[in-house]
Design a protein that fits this description.
The protein is an alpha/beta fold and 285 residues long. Helix content is 42%, strand content 21%.
Length: 285
């Protein structure tokens, strides 16, 4: 499989860049640290003029408008009088459907590598997340497995697949992500055990470990990790070197980290150094 981004990947990445810039704008406007050219052009709030955003992205305004129309239909942005703004709060997650498109070829390579770690007859946990969903699409891969998940998207991908005994953890549904969390979910986790946890995460730092911006997911993710013999993290290169608000797990709790060859040499060196210290196997695919 090609390691070069397709036109679809580039299109999705540009839309992701738009949302990241808007989130950064929201955070900076709260702190009064926006660049002067943007600050002076704005009339308040976190809106960015279209021409300024197009310049920063290196695309034409007409190209940007096409991207923004798609984002607006998804409810991710608002267009107001030649400006664009994010309707959510600073640090809000990107829409799942958009994240699914970003770095998809890399995520598929990671999923293939993860599939190779699963043995016939094993019981596995699958969390939510776009790379985990790519793995679910590949299962069972000529295996007989028990799959336990708190993700409705993953459950839908596994429904009626021969060779899969599917267990869905109950709990409160987090809309958008379609994952289950809370006391009922954690009680369900306590009743089962798994050979491996395949774990998707928002941010992975060699120093700060696995972190997430959504507090509601933290206790469920920790419970899953405690109930598994092995924790295997699936993270494309864009997740590495990032830190979110809530600590989920330190790197020492991870057994294997699988990422793409798009990781920078500097980051790879850092993760391998910390991985050796904490006995974490770093797989680059």
């Amino acid at each position: 499989m090609s390691k070069h981004p397709s036109s679809t990947d580039k299109h999705a990445e540009r839309k992701m860049d738009v949302l990241r810039m808007l989130q950064s704008s929201m955070q900076s406007s709260m702190q009064g640290t926006l660049p002067g050219s943007v600050q002076s052009a704005r009339q308040g709030g976190s809106a960015i003029p279209l021409n300024e955003l197009a310049k920063r992205l290196g695309v034409s305004v007409s190209t940007l408008r096409r991207d923004l129309r798609e984002l607006q239909e998804a409810g991710a942005v608002r267009l107001v009088a030649g400006r664009v703004e994010a309707p959510g709060s600073p640090g809000a997650e990107m829409p799942f459907t958009l994240r699914m498109l970003a770095n998809r070829e890399e995520k598929q390579r990671i999923a293939i590598a993860a599939l190779g770690l699963i043995q016939n007859g094993e019981t596995i946990f699958l969390t939510g997340g776009t790379t985990i969903l790519e793995l679910a699409y590949l299962l069972p891969g000529q295996r007989h497995l028990t799959a336990i998940t708190n993700s409705l998207r993953v459950a839908n991908a596994l429904l009626d697949k021969p060779g899969i005994e599917l267990i869905i953890l109950g709990g409160r549904v987090r809309s958008g992500e379609q994952t289950l969390h809370g006391l009922l979910t954690e009680w369900g986790v306590q009743q089962v055990r798994a050979d491996k946890l395949f774990f998707g995460i928002q941010a992975v730092s060699a120093q700060h470990g696995l972190t997430h911006g959504q507090m509601v997911e933290v206790s469920t993710d920790r419970a899953l990790a405690d109930a598994a013999s092995q924790v295997i993290v699936l993270a494309d290169h864009s997740k590495l070197g990032r830190v979110a608000a809530a600590l989920v797990l330190p790197l020492s709790k991870v057994h294997i980290l699988i990422t793409g060859s798009e990781i920078s040499p500097e980051q790879l060196k850092t993760f391998r150094a910390h991985g050796a210290q904490h006995h974490v196997n770093i797989m680059v695919v």
